[in-house]
Structure formats: C-alpha cells, structure tokens
Amino acid sequence: MSEDETNPAEPHPADVIQALNAENVELKDKLLRAHAEADNIRKRGEREREDTRLYAVTRFARDVLGVADNFERAMAALPPEKLEAADPQVRGVIEGVQATERQLLATLAQHGVKAIETEGAKFDPNLHQAIAEVPGSGKPAGTIVNVMQTGYTIAGRLLRPAMVTVAKAEAGGTGETVDTSA
Fold it and tell me: Which H or E run includes 115?
C-alpha cells in the first residue's frame, strides 16, 4: 500500500482534522454559554442580595408607621397657642414627644423609608389612595386637597399609599360640581 492510499478502516486525516475543528468550535460555544450563564447567575444573586438588603425592613417599617401616625395625630391635636400657654413642664413633655417623632422619622429615612410628598400634588393612583372627592375651593380637579394619612415609600417602592381627598371638577366656577366618576 502506498502512502497516498489509506486504510479504509481508518478515517482520512483531513476528515479527522475537520471533525476536531468542528468539535473545537462546539466546545468553545458551550464554554462561552457556560460562562455567560455563570455570570447571569452571579448578577441575579447580587440583585437579590441588594433587594433583600433594601427591603428587609419593609414589614417592620409598616408596623412602625402606625407609631409615626400616632405621633402625627397627637401633634395635630395640639393647637400651637395651647403649646405656648402650657405650663413649662407640660411644654417640656410635648417638645419631647415632638423630638421623638422627628427622631423616628429620621431613623425610618436612614433605612430608605420616606414620606410621599403630597403638598399641592396631583392625584397619582400609584402613590395615593383617594378616599373622597371634595369641592376644590379653587384648586384644579384632581389636586390633593387634604391628606388623611401620610403615605411612604421604601427605597423607591410604595410601602403604603397616602390616603387623600381630591378636588372635584367645578362647573363654570358656580360651585356646582361635575360627576367625574364616568
């Protein structure tokens, strides 16, 4: 048998090289895909850890918001003139309650819990819960008139919507209201 002839049982060297090159390409592709999948898993794990860190206090924060609400109601029930006229000891207690409320809100803010800004804002169903429509008293329809309960976000996500009353549309400035439910 000459060197140009090959044994029919053995594959031709060119075929072997072609098969090895194809296998090499396939293995490189599998390796790249495995690296990409490992990178995706690592990134997903980092995102989940970050979310867990940011939102770990969510349940606790919701519970503590009830305490913040009670502080807010207590301070709203005391007219400023009564505070000024109060006995110095009583005034000291009230100022202590105010300081405690400020510290509570500051601590919540340090953990990403922030009050939703509603002053003069338009109603946003993503942040507010309308509990009533009321005459706007000169405010445009859909503007928040009164906040019944402060809303909060945690790290940019809604923790609790603000419960608000919203201005009704007024017909021609006559004080008559227009049904905005349709």
Answer: strand 113-115
